[in-house]
Design a protein that fits this description.
With 78 residues, this protein is mainly alpha-helical. 62% of the residues lie in helices and 5% in strands. Helix 1 packs across helix 5 and helix 2 crosses helix 3.
């Protein structure tokens, strides 16, 4: 996946399972585990989440995605 494609996906407010599969490059079982882990952490903090979605900002933090680097190497900065 290119930097532009990754930036386009992570620019969304909410992350679906399909988005998580694309940006994490994990298999089905591990994607569902990751989603459940993020969801549990947020619910323990008192957040109420829409069914099947998690905040993209939390996914970016969890996966340690370097947005500045992606933007730098993409064609979007020109």
């Amino acid at each position: 996946m290119s930097a532009e494609e990754t930036l386009k996906i992570i620019s969304k407010q909410w992350c679906s399972i399909e988005d998580l599969k694309k940006i994490s490059h994990l298999g089905n079982n591990n994607v569902y585990k990751l989603k459940k882990e993020i969801q549990k952490e947020l619910e323990e903090q008192g957040y109420i989440l829409p069914k099947g979605l998690i905040p993209m900002c939390e996914v970016v933090k969890k996966l340690k995605i370097d947005i500045e680097y992606l933007y730098k190497i993409s064609n979007l900065h020109n």
